[in-house]
């Protein structure tokens, strides 16, 4: 009897809390256009943050709010940016009213006092683990030093070894320029084997400097990256039967590039979206050698209660324009195929071949239509598992400097296509797929993967 009374009391308390929350939301909705002004901000737990950096975040968010409706959105922006920029671990925010104050210049406004309770971020972090997926595996060790000077700095050192990545060493340093822009420096050294059908061992030593934006959708759906990169590449042949194209790539090569990435994204989630559109445009200029462009488009729509059925349509295309008589390096070319790309084909399994070695292409098109459904079992329908059906297709070619119209004509013919069904797990950190797929059309040199195929990652076709 006591347990029943306790359960009833808990339910009554939850109902009361819900009624209070509904009442607060009703008040905010009815008064969302009331003029407001942030009179002052009381902050606790900010001893590890540079006061000027914290002030810049306040000036860019809640101090810009003119109404209760704007304040609600800019409060969320402030919370997210303080966490994303590595300044806090968590933040709680509340407001007190000082009443309506009249001002001869700005008129009457509701004066508010903001209260920020900050949970400081852990400055040092060390972690180790393994990654398994797409027929590969690796182990890593990582050290992080976060916000040491109070301006959102991050220093990261990562060591990784695995099946595809023989060794990888990465040092990253980043710092804020503004609440919505940061600069990042990467220094790296790694040795990899790109794929089993490309018998090369690729060693790379270099660095990359980038300036990136970090806008959120309530402020802007556009984000940008501008970068410059320099690296020394060393290629070694790993097979006695390697093709002439592979042998031609061996030796040392220095690469220096300028590039940009422009993104427009209205999706409701980057990892597991149910609706929205996205556009991604990548440009890379290797001085005196080539100009590389890649465009990605995505559209999603859902139907029925709780987004029971979702359709995703994706399209990708790319083109490399050579600026010299020197051939483009294999590692700079486009590759197609794999569990995250055109399914039912091996990674780097499509496109030009030389004695069955995948040598990549300088123009491609790929597309996919996927339909996701919640599990038709009430017990599991609310889980992160989804049933999955898809059709993929595309083409990868070497245009050999031909006219753009001829290149487009070649891309439109003789596509490799596949179809399949499977199940996916939409984890907050990544997406996992297990599919059964079959090729529908293919070229004689395509490297096929018929049957079960497992994929893990953030981006899928």
UniProtKB/TrEMBL annotation:
Topology relative to the membrane: Multi-pass membrane protein
Annotated ranges, domain Bacterial surface antigen (D15): 147-460
Superkingdom of origin: Eukaryota
Gene3D superfamilies, A to Z: membrane protein fhac: a member of the omp85/tpsb transporter family (2.40.160.50)
Similarity comment: Belongs to the SAM50/omp85 family.
Protein name: Bacterial surface antigen (D15) domain-containing protein
Species whose genome carries this gene: Naumovozyma castellii (Yeast)
Pfam families, per the entry: Omp85
């Amino acid at each position: 009897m006591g347990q029943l009374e306790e359960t009833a009391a808990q339910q009554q308390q939850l109902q009361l809390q819900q009624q209070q929350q509904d009442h607060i939301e009703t008040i905010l909705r009815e008064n969302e256009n009331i003029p407001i002004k942030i009179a002052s901000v009381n902050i606790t737990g900010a001893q590890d943050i540079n006061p000027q950096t914290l002030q810049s975040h306040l000036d860019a968010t809640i101090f810009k709010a003119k109404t209760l409706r704007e304040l609600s959105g800019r409060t969320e922006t402030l919370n997210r940016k303080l966490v994303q920029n590595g300044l806090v671990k968590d933040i709680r925010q509340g407001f007190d009213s000082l009443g309506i104050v009249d001002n001869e210049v700005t008129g009457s406004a509701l004066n508010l006092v903001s209260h920020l309770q900050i949970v400081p971020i852990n400055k040092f972090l060390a972690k180790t683990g393994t990654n398994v997926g797409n027929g590969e595996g690796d182990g890593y060790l990582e050290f992080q030093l976060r916000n040491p000077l109070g301006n959102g700095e991050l220093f990261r050192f990562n060591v990784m070894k695995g099946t595809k990545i023989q060794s990888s060493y990465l040092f990253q340093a980043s710092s804020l320029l503004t609440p919505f822009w940061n600069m990042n420096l990467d220094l790296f050294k790694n040795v990899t084997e790109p794929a089993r059908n490309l018998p090369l061992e690729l060693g790379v030593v270099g660095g990359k400097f980038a300036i990136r934006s970090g806008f959120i959708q309530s402020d802007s759906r556009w984000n940008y990256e501008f970068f410059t990169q320099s690296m020394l590449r060393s290629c070694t042949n790993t097979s006695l039967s390697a093709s002439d194209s592979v042998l031609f790539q061996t030796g040392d090569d220095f690469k220096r590039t300028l590039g940009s990435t422009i993104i427009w994204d209205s999706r409701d989630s980057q990892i597991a979206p149910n609706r929205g559109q996205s556009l991604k445009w990548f440009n890379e200029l290797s001085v005196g050698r080539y100009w590389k462009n890649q465009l990605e488009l995505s559209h999603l729509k859902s139907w029925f209660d709780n987004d029971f059925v979702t359709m995703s349509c994706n399209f990708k295309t790319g083109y490399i324009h050579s600026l010299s008589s020197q051939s483009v390096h294999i590692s700079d070319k486009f590759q197609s195929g794999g569990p995250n790309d055109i399914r039912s084909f091996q990674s780097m399994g499509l496109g030009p071949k030389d004695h069955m070695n995948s040598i990549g292409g300088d123009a491609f098109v790929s597309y996919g239509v996927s339909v996701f459904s919640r599990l038709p079992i009430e017990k599991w329908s609310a889980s992160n598992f989804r049933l999955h059906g898809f059709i993929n297709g595309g083409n990868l070619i070497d245009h050999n400097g031909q006219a753009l119209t001829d290149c487009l004509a070649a891309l439109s013919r003789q596509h490799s296509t596949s179809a399949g069904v499977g199940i996916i797990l939409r984890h907050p950190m990544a997406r996992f797929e297990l599919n059964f797929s079959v090729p529908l059309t293919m070229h004689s040199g395509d490297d096929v993967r018929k049957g079960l195929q497992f994929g893990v990652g953030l981006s899928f076709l």
